[in-house]
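Lab notebook, bench 4. The sequencing result for the construct came back, and we need a structural model before the next group meeting so we can plan mutations. Quick request posted to the team channel:

Model the 3D structure of this chain.
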Amino acid sequence: MVTASASEPRWRPERPPLDTPWTHQVGPDNALPEYPRPRLVRPRWLNLNGVWEYTTPGRHGEHILVPYPPESALSGIGRHDDRMWYRRTFEVPADWTGDRVLLHFGAVDQVARVWVNNQLVATHEGGYTAFSADVTDVLRAGGEQELVVRAEDTGDRGTFPVGKQANDPGGILYTQASGIWQTVWLEPVGPAHVEWLDIACDHTGFAVTPRVSGADGHRVEVVVTEPGGAELARATGAAGTRLWLPVPEPRLWSPDDPYLYDLTVRLLAADGRVADEARGYAGLRTIEVVLDGQGRPRIALNGRITVLHGPLDQGYWPDGIYTAPTDEALRFDLEQTRLAGFNCVRKHVKVEPARWYYWADRLGLLVWQDMPNLPVLLDNPPGPQAPPVRQARQRFEAELAGMIEQLRGVTSIIGWVPFNEGWGEYDTARIAAEVKAADPARLVIAGSGVNCCHSHPDGGAGDVYDDHTYVGPGRPEARDERALAAGEYGGLGLVVEGRSWPGEPQAYEMAADSRELTARYAEVSRDLAGVVRDNGLSVAIYTQTTDVENEVNGLLSYDRRTIKPDLAVVAEHNRAVIATGSG
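Done. Here's the predicted structure in token form:
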């Protein structure tokens, strides 16, 4: 990997209301330097994170640390702008001569236009999906190249999915994150190259469809190996075709054994020459709804009925807002989730960078992936055909399809949640059916917390009926062929002095100290175990992993410096809940 130096490294971080253990590790030469696409890896690449010039209407001469959003302290800006201009220069490494050069963006919120050397190379809508451009033909012959990005983001005043971002944060809505908020990078490839691997699996092997570009008479070869070891399967076929690779004596991925196989893909020219090669990984596992011994619909992982118990994970940071300060920080929340005895996590109305899912795969956490919701301001439109509403729904469905396509090969993701508690919800049954058709091998919760939004009945759509009750847990009862979930419960709060966001702290129930919080967690967990046993509950999601701004109902403080309950007691009860209903 090569790190590009910024042309004018004049950057100073703002002071966040709370810092984290990683805040002061961030700087111009250490802005998320890790390889950003773990599921398709090539050895050569150029990281463009670092200090960029930053201009907004009426303000010039500022500098921003990419990829931290301008609202964040780590960016060095510390405010929101509806319209943002980013600029930097770079040089293409000498050993890339003769290669095609691809420019990649992990995410830019909400509309991005990209120029290289004054030539428009990309336009992208939607703040949660990656995009790329082949910039080879606009590069100058040697020397300095100019990269300019224009981003527009009107937050929850617009018609794009926003999740919990808000122009006026408060309560359950938080500070918005605009512009570039994931890694920007370059990579060299041949004229014929693999763009992506679409991977599906069952308990016996992998179905791999390599997506290729520039291939003319090429063939694709995929090899499955043990981690760093022996070859287990090999298949070849025409470029772009689906290849089936049965794995002998398969070892299935699970939270107890998050075993991942290595994959190598090669694009072979007609003469046998290797035109491109990349490496990745994947795990073997299945997820489905089955009937238990009492005839109740239950979720089964790898054919075994399994209770999925985990926290609601919002993915916010006091110093980086939407962007974790470091890769270690990104991994930390998931490690703490495992230490707390959970086996899953609900990624709540946000899409994370690819490395978050990499760590979920490696650490062994089952992931329920939410689609970020449309602005709640659109929930009461003047009519379903009003132009802003039509446009918003078109954008929602386009980004939903893009999210599924981008994440479909992630081993740890076992289910999709298109809607939460009626926020921006419409055509629930149709959307759920389209999600299932796009990815039949995963489960769908059509409307999480459908009991909270009677104006949006789900019509029995999806694979799981999901109840939200605070403090709860709720006691949903089987009413059809869907498994049961307590998709949100808990919300037990504790204020930690010196570890709280400015403003009035909020929780569904407050504890006086850590001992009381631990005791209440144990009490609620015993109640939850009874619901699992008596009602056949399959999923339980506790609110939440960390405090988020004024919400103080996290197991960890917002700055990640304090674990609020006794984690050993929490883990004991979480494992007991899982054991109660699994078998």
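The first strand starts at residue 2 and ends at 3.
Will bring this to the meeting.
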